Amino acid sequence: MDMELSDSDEPINRNKRKASRLRILSSSSDEEVVFGNSDMNECSSEEEDVVSISENEDGVEKWQAVKEITSVINEYLEEEKFLYDTDCNDPFALYKLFFTDYILEMIVEETNKYATQGIKNSSSSSRIHQKAWQSVTKDEVNTFIGILLIMGVVQLPEIRLYWSNKDMYANARIKKAMKRDRFLSILKFLHFADNTTARTEDRLYKIRNIFETIVDSFKSSIRPGKDIVIDESMVPWRGRLRFRQYIPGKRHKYGVKLYKLCLPDGYTYNIEIYAGKNNTIIKKSHSHDVVMRLLNGLLFEGRILFTDGYYTSVPLGEELLQNNTFICGTVKINKKFLPPQAKQKQKRGELMHFENRSGVKFLKWTDKRPVCMLTTSKNHRCKFVTGTNGKVKPDAVFDYNIAKKGVDLSDQLSGYYSCLRKTIKWYRKVVIQLICGTSLVNAWYIHKRWGTKNMNLLQFREVIIDRLLVEEQIYCPIPSRKHVLQSYEGSARESRKRCKECYKKLSEKKGRDYATNKTTRVKTYCGQCKGQPALCLKCFNKLHKKQ
Question: In terms of domain of life, where is this protein from (predicted)?
């Protein structure tokens, strides 16, 4: 039901009987919210006089109730732009914009280096398994990523089940592409930095290089349009980690926190990882500085940034205005520099709005609960507007609800086919999320926005998997299982031990004491058997005749 808002010059008579009431649905829930027509006329009147001028507790900021934004900054008018001439109908070509050959070579180099270091420093008891590692190649890493993408689509409780002989579990495509032990071996040694040369004071040194490379590819592929949004995201992690965060409102409440700058339709443009408190100087506040870092390269062009109550503040709005950038977002009522009237109670449907001398506008609207917002956009005149769904709300709230879904949509799309596992270390989880989640969603966004084919996310993913998996199974040489009789080091008198098999036979027949005295002492042993038992030549040949 459409509704006409009054633009009359006549003063509002609060003693007059209220007109018929309109019932609409609240934007924050499915409950009905009742607005009186007189209340809406009062809130939307363009001829409303200035009702007060006040100062905050510090006596610095002056706020006045005005009818519209007085900013003279022009808003950004250009549309989003794809910056490459890549075929937008080729999913694999789009995916390779982010999962580049440079990243592939980095993974190959650092994984091989880490595996060599791990084998060199391993204990002698695990030497039997060291021969299983063979240097990984670029084709193998491609196949490895392709298998991870399949695991995101076809989810099983354990990794080993994908290679099971049971029909209900086995995945023929995965079994054909790579052997199970080779996949687990690559997963074990998957690495992205050289531990011997890394700056260990940097908590993100294990992923710093590859993380910045991937994020740079996000920023170099698209030029954002007018609207951008900032919010937090979580990579799930419940293990021990110094900078693990807890956000109760997220789907994954515990994990590594990411600050993301996204486009309203889900493209991730910039990311910053929260690594805890460090020695960097905080200029204004942590959230303030995060916003300014994420906006690097996007200022001075008239864009509108949408933020939630964690980031929105009067100082941030003023600084962004100085950088020719607008802000619109919810604000917490206990933030500094807000007008004193912000804490006044309202009836449902009422709206108040004030502007300070810098051009930052505060509005408070009571729906099911009070909603406080700051905006500097000159398009926000604090009028009530009716959406296509019939809901009526202030224009700033209406625009915010449309734009704020960007980060949530990005997380939602990445989470549809997540291949993350609980047992994977945190830094591997972050990189796998970027490569198999965010990068793939960004590539699909470009295809959907500028491509001509109609392909959903699952179909897009299937094409990439087909290109990543090689036709022939990756060769993985199996270490020799042949047992060899070896000799202990040192003199025979000092190194000889009782033959395990001879002792076992004699003790069964005549007891331990007899076996202890009569068992043959030898200097030879089997280095491949568990526990490396001492064996005479006769017992060794008999024990290993089938091998």
Answer: Eukaryota
Note whether 400 and 328 are within 8 A (CB). yes
- Please name the residue that has the structure tokens 């449309």: 402
pTM of the predicted protein model: 0.74
Q: Residue type at 133? A: W
Residue-wise pLDDT for 285-338, tens only, equals: 899 999 999 999 999 999 999 999 999 999 999 999 999 999 999 999 989 899
* Backbone angles phi and psi of 121, in degrees to 5: -95, 0
Q: What distance, in Å, lies between the first and last C-alpha atoms of the chain?
A: 84
Does residue 305 sit in helix, strand or coil? strand
Tell me if 301 sits within 8 A of 223, measured CB to CB: no
Structural Rg of the chain based on CA atoms:
33
Residue boundaries of the structural domains of the chain: 1-79+309-403, 86-201+421-468, 485-543
| DSSP letter assigned to residue 534 | B
Question: Is the sign of the CA dihedral 115, 119, 125, 126 positive or negative?
Answer: positive
- Per-residue 3-state assignment (H helix, E strand, C coil) for 1-30: CCCCCCCCCCCCCCCCCCCCEEEEECCCCC
